[in-house]
Amino acid sequence: MLLRTVARRSSRWITALGLLVVTLAACSTDQYPQTTLLPRGDFAKIADDLLDTTVRWALLVFVLVEGVLLYAVFRFRGKPGDAEPHQTHGNTTVEVIWTVIPALILAAIAVPTVRAIFQTNATPGKDALTIEVVGHQWWWEFRYPEFNITTANEMHVPVGRMVSLRMGSNDVIHSFWVPQFAAKRDVFANRETRMWFTAQAEGDYPGQCAEFCGIQHGRMAHRIKAQKPEEFQAWVAHMQTLGPKPPGAAAPAGDQQYALGEKLFTGKGCIACHSFAAVNAPKGMVGPNLANIGSRSYLAAGTLKNTDENLARWIRDPQGIKKGVLMPNLGVTEAEAQALVAYLRAQK
Ligand code: CUA
């Protein structure tokens, strides 16, 4: 009877655990999870190593303390008819021991902690790749002064070269978080904050604004595309060819949709907030730079996969998809949205 109850209880626990695992697994549909526990860069590795060290000490303390406690509970438990045990008030030796041991452990943890603080706050060398990060409600602008190019929401970096981030905000406080490469750091309107990392593995890594910044804070994601150095250089060279094309010049011959989309982009007023200039991009634009919008993986700062269908939905009803976003609903018809999609898809 007892055994059966125990078995039933443990099978319930196993079911609950199984459900939890399935639920958590659903959180990571990406090949690259948004986690600090799988570092792919030196900065993140320093932080992760420190966490490991601290957890190891904590585990040791937990096992020893709980072990002694459980031993005492079972070894000295009261039995019916026992006399009152001997009453103790204070034990200097034991108190000294349990004060000195934690002090030593804290000192042992302080050494790697202080070292990590200095390491992660070090100034990057001159050969680092500087990227300016600007937080906006609710998207990220990335400017590469070395190459004079600008993009939005998807940061490309070369593997193996240190990246020096110089960060600010266009409006409220945001926090730029690069889970697998570095930490999170707040960005402010009137103060520059800095962070650095060196990507050690190629991949397409998700990141997320980590400071509440308004109702769409949760949809202020970004991606880090870590590429082989030669692929990164090719991307830069390609970006440098992108820019505002003379009206009609870039239209594939006879592409009516493209030509109509180009007209609508001006006619509907999109042009007031978005720039197609990757090179010499204007600063302080209201909307994300669209120089390579046709080839990005996501739309609206990680809100939607960049498919034609989603792009059309977004153009028609940004307020329905991301309420409060600065892009207004412009009364675009389905046919007009299709033309704008054809035009935008060609910007890549
Ligand atoms: Cu930006 Cu939260």
Molecular structure report:
With 348 residues, the chain is of the alpha+beta class. Among the domains are: 129-239, Sandwich (Immunoglobulin-like); 256-345, Cupredoxins -  blue copper proteins (Immunoglobulin-like). The protein has helices spanning 2-27, 42-75, 92-120, 229-239, 256-267, 308-316, 318-321, 334-345; strands at residues 129-136, 139-144, 149-152, 154-158, 162-169, 174-177, 184-187, 193-198, 203-208, 221-227, 298-299, 304-305. Strands 3-2-1-5-8 form a five-stranded mixed sheet. Strand 11 and strand 12 (304-305) form a beta hairpin. The chain starts with a helix and ends with a helix. The model has no long low-confidence stretch (mean pLDDT 88). The structure holds dinuclear copper ion. Dinuclear copper ion (CUA) binds at residues 135, 138, 174, 209, 211-213, 217, 220.
Key words describing this protein structure:
39% helix, 3-stranded mixed β-sheet, 5-stranded mixed β-sheet, Immunoglobulin-like, binds dinuclear copper ion, alpha+beta, single chain, 348 residues
Low-confidence stretches: none
CATH homologous superfamily classification of the domain at 129-239: Cupredoxins -  blue copper proteins
CATH fold category name of the domain at 129-239: Immunoglobulin-like
Q: CATH class of the domain at 129-239, please?
A: Mainly Beta
Quaternary structure annotation: single chain
Q: By helix and strand content, what is the structural category?
A: alpha+beta
Number of distinct beta strands: 12
Largest sheet report: 5 strands, mixed
Gyration radius from CA atoms, angstroms: 28 Å
Order of helices and strands: HHHEEEEEEEEEEHHEEHHH
Count of alpha/pi helices: 8
Helix content: 25-40%
CATH architectural type of the domain at 129-239: Sandwich
Average pLDDT reading: 88
How do the strands line up in the largest sheet?
Answer: 3-2-1-5-8
Separation of the first and last Cα atoms:
69 Å
Net shape: elongated
Q: Estimate what percentage of residues fall within beta strands.
A: 15-25%
Bound molecules: dinuclear copper ion
